Every structure is written in C-alpha cells, then in structure tokens.
Amino acid sequence: MYKKFEMELAGRMLRVDVGRVAKQANGAALMHYGDTTVLSTATASEKPREGIDFFPLSVEYNERMYSVGKIPGGFNKREGKASENAVLTCRVIDRPMRPLFPKDYRNDVTLENLVLSVDQDCSPELTAMLGAAIATAISDIPFDGPTATTQVGLVDGELVFNPTAAQKEVSLMELTVASTRDKVIMIEAGAKEVPEDKMIEAIFAAHKMNQEVIAFIDTIVAECGREKHSYTSCAVPEELFAAIKELVPPADMEVAVFTDEKQVREANIRAIKDKLEEAFAENEEWMAVLDEAVYQYQKKTVRKMILKDHKRPDGRAIDEIRPLAAETDLIPRVHGSAMFTRGQTQICTLTTLAPLSEAQRIDGLEDAYTSKRYMHHYNFPSYSVGETRPSRGPGRREIGHGALAERALVPVLPDESEFPYAIRTVSETFESNGSTSQASICASSMSLMAAGVPIKAAVAGISAGLVTGDTDDDYLVLTDIQGLEDFFGDMDFKVAGTHKGITAIQMDIKIHGLTRPIIEEAIAATKKARTFILDEVMNKAIAEPRPEVGEFAPKIVQMKIDPQKIGDVVGQRGKTINAIIEQTGVKIDITDDGAISICGTDKAAMDEAQKIIAIIVTDFEAGQIFEGKVISIKDFGAFIEFAPGKEGMVHISKLSKERVNKVEDVLKLGQIVKVVCLGKDKMGRISFSMKDVAE
C-alpha cells in the first residue's frame, strides 16, 4: 500500500514514498529532497552464503546522466563503470550501516541507490544515505537502526545544515555526520584548517539534527516496517572456545600476539592453528569455523590486554607513536619525491607538475563539466603486506584513501594565479601495518614542497583507535594504531591537518556509535600527535617549499593579452598557435580572459614563444622593427612572415638603398631579414622596409 511521509529538513521538503515502486525488494523508499529523487532499496538472500567468515554487504550508488539532463560521453553513450564520486558515496553509505547488522549474519545484503534526478541544492549523496537507512529499517532484514545523516558547512562563521550549491562554494567546511539514536556513528570531513573546537561543535550540531530525522524515520517504520526475519546464526559455538582455551591458554595467546613484528605474530598464529587443526581434524563442524574462532580468540586477547592491562601488542604506551622517519629527493628525475615511515608503514609519494590543460575533466552530476587541478592517487600492492596477488587496478579502498589524502591537501595548495600548474601526487605503499592513508598525507605534503609547490602549510595525518568495555565510560583511546589494533579494535579515527587546524577527517567504527567524550579525546590525541609529527619529523626533513620547481619539471611563464586578440593568437582552426608550438616545442594554454600560460623545459624556447605572441598581439605602428622570414617573392616585392600567421610586404623599392632590378638579386625564400614597419598601405596590409632599418 502506497504511503507518503514528509518533513521539513534544513529549509527544504523531504518526502519519502513507500509502497509506490520496487515492491519486490525487502525494503524500498523513493526519496525526494527538493527536486532530487533517489530510489533506495534493500534486499537480502534467503540463506547465508557458505564458506565465508564475514558479512557480505554490497552498497551501490548508481549515477544516471539523465538526472541532470546529459547524455553520457564516449562511443557507447551510456554510463560505464562507477565514477570516483560514486565509489566514495558507496563507502560513506556503507560505513554507518555495516556495524548495525548482526555480527553473526552471513546472508548477502545489497543496498542499491539509483539517482533519478538532481537538484543541485539538495545533495543526492545525502538523499541516498537517508534512503538506504530508511529502506533497510522498514525491511525485514535484521538491522539495529535507523541511522540519519546531516551535512554541515561553515559560511561566514556560522554553521549551515545541508548547504546549497552556492553555500558549498564559499564554505570553509564540508562535514558529513551520521548518527544512531544516541551516538555518532560516522564522520567524514574536509575543511580549510578549521580549529578542533569548531569541528566538535559542528559534529554535535549535526548529531542533534540527526535525532529529528530519526524521529521522522521512526514514524515511517511504525506504519510500514516489516517484522525482521529469522536467520541462521554463524556464531562460533561456545564449546569450541572452551576446547581451544584448554589447548591454548590465554597466557600462550598473549605471548603469540605480543610482538611488533607482523611476520613473527602471523607465524605464531599459524603454529597455533596447525595445533588446533590437528586436534579437531575429525570434527567437521568445528573445522568449518576454526579460523573465525581463532580470530575471535585473538581479538578478545588483544582487547583485554589493551583495555584492562594497558598493554599494546608492540609494547608502546597508549599515546606513543611508532618510530618515525622522513626524507625527500630519494627518486631521481621525478619532479618531487618524499618518503614517510611510521613503524612498519612506509609510503613514498611522487609529484608530477604539468600545464593546467592536463587537469582532470570530470563529467558528473553537476550542471556543467568540472575540472580537477590537483589529483592524488594511492596504490596498495600485495607485497606491502607480504602477500601475493595479481594487480587489477585500484579498488574502492585505494580510491577512498587517495580521495582522503587529496581532500586533506587541497586547502593548502596555492591558487592557480600564483602557481599555474596541474598537480598529481601518487602515493606508493612500500610497506603497510596500519594507517597508510595518513602516512600518504605526510609523504605527499613533503613531496609537494620538494617539487617547489608553494603550499601554505605542511599537513600531517594520524589515526586514533579505540577499545571499549561494557559501559560507555569504559574505554581507551589509542594513538597511532597498527594493523592488529585496527582489526581487533572498535575505531579508526583518521585526522589530518596543519598547526592551524583540521583539513580532513574520516571515522570508521565497528560498534554502535561514539559518545562525545570519546570523540573529543580522539581529536585531542590526534592533534597532539600531528603537532609532534610536523615539528619533530617532517619539518626536519623539509621545512618549507623549494623556491622554484626542479630541473626536470616544466617551467611556466604567464602573460596577459587583450581577450579580443585571442583569435589572432589561435588563428583559423588553430593554425597560428599550432605553428608557434611546432616552432618552439612548448605547450600553450589560453583562457577566455586572455591569460596565457607557456610551458616548457627550455627557457630560450619559452622566451621565443612569448616574443612571438607579443608580436602577434601588438598593434602595428610605424617605426617598429621586426625579424622575419621571406615566404613569397613577387615581381613587385617580397612577403615577410614575422610571426606565425602574420606577414607584411617589402616593396622592391624598399629593399635596398641601391637600385634593385629583380627581387631575387637581394632575397631568396626562407631568408631571415630585419624590417621596419612603415604602417599600413591603402589596402590595409602592413608595409615594411629593409633599407630604412638602420635609420
């Protein structure tokens, strides 16, 4: 039965249609926020997937170009693989939802979000996040929701909720907060060095608004919600845990995991598994869940050691950072390079500079095509964790980590007018044992400075972890978590920023939300660690950006011309500008306002191109001297090309002070000569003289 629900949300109407479309899904909500329309559905398989030890949740966010009145580019004229924005949206929908499904649930679940229309003032990403939560909450799929999400901007010092497109353009903050009924469950932020206290204020202002949305969702669930279905639990039998503890006492497990060497720990666990597999070889039921049982045993051991004994697996203090190292210029010939090492996490970032014409062009759900001048890419090869698998290109994790580092660094980049380059940084993971995304931020900041990019301030990133007990006030926040603490802990709270403030946040948790004291303590811990990394490590490797770009980087000179003269420089069908490029070997970019960027590695060639353009756009006056090439010889004189597409004539009487019978007696094709401008003749052509140059 079709039902419609409405509420006002941040000054715009949010409408949810239930029972109108997609009735065969377990749950479906047709979402309308302003004129933005998204269909969100939740479906689940009837039976658990066999042979897995994880919850198989898939989240999709499908952008359709018809939603903004566009036809997709390319030969096929249909949407291809998911865009980077779609991948990042899937991740941000997944993160607050995943912890709220039962931990022993192994049925396949798919959350599908189809963007049908886009109102630029009403975020389709936010609409999809709300839709996914509603579709799941009203379905029969076990789910401890609902969740609600709010976006926050900072405009003229004031917090703005679910900002419009115009507000986003001037906002100092792009914050997304998801909440359960009483806790914050997900934070994603990009900011222009926003102070920590302002960020905390914004987080909990969003959390307060989320409670209004949850109350609205509760009314929908009360009228349309289906009874949750029963499912086959995949929990490990308690008898198996008891049997394992008899063979491997807790003290032995503590010894196995208490090491800073990942390979040593893995060898210890492998030995324990071999012992247990031999003991339980005849019990097929136990063998099927033995890996999960050992994982749970490790998890309980590590959590107990940290929370109760205040002992970390590598012996560090709770707020201690692993050993740090930083260096620059380790890779020759690239435009900039830096390596940052934190314990067994090691990232090398390479910087490439190019003309603005090489900025990334994005065909997305915006009113017009957009371009991205700064690109950060992150690679995570299998060797970095001592494994072997073929490389199949970046996955969602790699795309997400790259976008996080990019977001952290954009606020400190110089303006195009100050530094007219397209910039690409690539972070290569050499070794990984926790928080490589934050190490890539540190390495990228140093690499940019080494490349001569005049960034406004250095940026560092660090991650805080969490282990919780049975009550809200029984917890421990850890600084700089390694892989084991991430796997077995409850939180990965990544914060990047400068001395001045925060530039990016990404919070992943495995529990049902965080209280305000935990969030405040995590942000304070990351600020302390970030300050130490900046002052004691990064600044000692490179304290400020190099004064100019390196030897192998392209050089760019800029000049400004009258926009009315752009056509003269470009020429018919690009003939003039292409001739300049062919003659000098440089790259030339021209904007509609007459700004010209000349890019090359040979200064003489760049100067030549600049000189040619200056000649082309000059209003010719008598007395100006030019150097040109003879391109045509006639009985009455010769034509001289003094710039691509620009030519004038020297009459035979103006060739020499001596009498000239034939033009060929003085000139030949291709000869370079100096001429003086005499003005324009009756036909408007430029007239030159060779004999009057000296005068």
Automatic annotation (TrEMBL):
EC number of this enzyme: 2.7.7.8
Entries under PANTHER family matching the protein: POLYRIBONUCLEOTIDE NUCLEOTIDYLTRANSFERASE (PTHR11252), POLYRIBONUCLEOTIDE NUCLEOTIDYLTRANSFERASE 1, MITOCHONDRIAL (PTHR11252:SF0)
Pfam families documented for this protein: KH_1, PNPase, RNase_PH, RNase_PH_C, S1
Q: Does the keyword Cytoplasm apply?
A: yes
What is the scientific name of the source organism? Hespellia stercorisuis DSM 15480
Cited function: Involved in mRNA degradation. Catalyzes the phosphorolysis of single-stranded polyribonucleotides processively in the 3'- to 5'-direction.
Matching CDD domains:
KH-I_PNPase (cd02393), RNase_PH_PNPase_1 (cd11363), RNase_PH_PNPase_2 (cd11364), S1_PNPase (cd04472)
Q: What is its main location?
A: cytoplasm
Q: Which UniProt keywords apply?
A: Cytoplasm, Magnesium, Metal-binding, Nucleotidyltransferase, RNA-binding, Transferase
**Where does the chain bind Mg(2+)?**
D486, D492
Q: Report the family membership.
A: Belongs to the polyribonucleotide nucleotidyltransferase family.
Its taxonomic placement starts with:
Bacteria, Bacillati, Bacillota, Clostridia, Lachnospirales
Q: Which residues form the S1 motif domain?
A: 623-691
Cross-referenced InterPro entries: ExoRNase_PH_dom1 (IPR001247), ExoRNase_PH_dom2 (IPR015847), ExoRNase_PH_dom2_sf (IPR036345), KH_dom (IPR004087), KH_dom_type_1 (IPR004088), KH_dom_type_1_sf (IPR036612), NA-bd_OB-fold (IPR012340), PNPase (IPR012162)
Q: What is this protein called?
A: Polyribonucleotide nucleotidyltransferase
What are the required cofactors?
Answer: Mg(2+)
The GO cellular component terms are:
cytosol
Catalysed reaction(s) here are: RNA(n+1) + phosphate = RNA(n) + a ribonucleoside 5'-diphosphate
- Subcellular location, record wording: Cytoplasm
Q: Please name the GO terms that the record assigns under molecular function.
A: 3'-5'-RNA exonuclease activity; magnesium ion binding; polyribonucleotide nucleotidyltransferase activity; RNA binding
The UniProt entry's GO biological process terms, in alphabetical order, are:
mRNA catabolic process; RNA processing
